[in-house]
Please model this.
Amino acid sequence: MPEVYKQSFKQNYTDNVELSIFNCGIERCAAGHTWGPGIRDHYLIHLVLSGKGTFRIGDTVFQLQAGDIFLIKPSQLCTYAADPDDPWEYSWVGFNGAVANKLVTKLPFSDTAPVHHARNPEELRNVLASIYQSRGMELQSEIAMVGYLYLFIAALMRENSDGDSHNASSSSQYVLNAIKFIQFNFSHDISIDDVAKSVGVSRSHLYRVFMSNVGKSPIDYLTEYRINEACNLLRSSRLSIAEVATSVGFFDQFYFSRVFKKAVGVPPSRYVSALEKGTLTGPDARI
Model:
């Protein structure tokens, strides 16, 4: 076994409240080397590179080896120790911040399963190495480190995918991703083919999961979203009909007016007055 070593970096202060790196590094531990029992005040993720060790939370002990990743949450009492015969080498990153908890919920861990065996450990190893290599107290170093941390979290999110595009949870996720794409891009000249491509499924599969989860087709959802946004603009701005149409992704004012009237019951030119009079009668008069 090569000589033990530890290379680490600790951030003493940061202005980044959204996501901050507390520490990072790589260590080849001595036989039996133990941390804990104790708690951390931040999230801490280790990737086992080689060798073996144990990770204990409460009464549960996990036997770990190369390719395993384990998560420690803030204020979680734990102990981890290198194997006495084949001590481990691991990389780690500790972080916290306003979005940390939300991001961690998307990772392949749970309270009962804080350990995950990586499908692509080399990618995770390389990104962790990049975090450490970018270390420094300067602002540009901190930004680079956090940037690589986001890439590490993204790689772990991909680990969380079960690869089954037809089960219920995946189906719901495709719909959520499609809705996010629509909400960010509705004002552009996008098609349902663009939406399907953005979430990595065919147009026909997107149609099926939308009908199953939302009860309407993707094009109906996109149109309804655009019309809702148009109603908001008509109520709250002094934009012309043509300007409203362009702002919500309709680049033909007359086509916009036809679609709007079909959805709301009146043309956009009469929408505000009809709303004030309470005379809307269209299928989406509630808009």
Q: What stands out?
A: DSSP finds ten helices and ten strands in the chain.
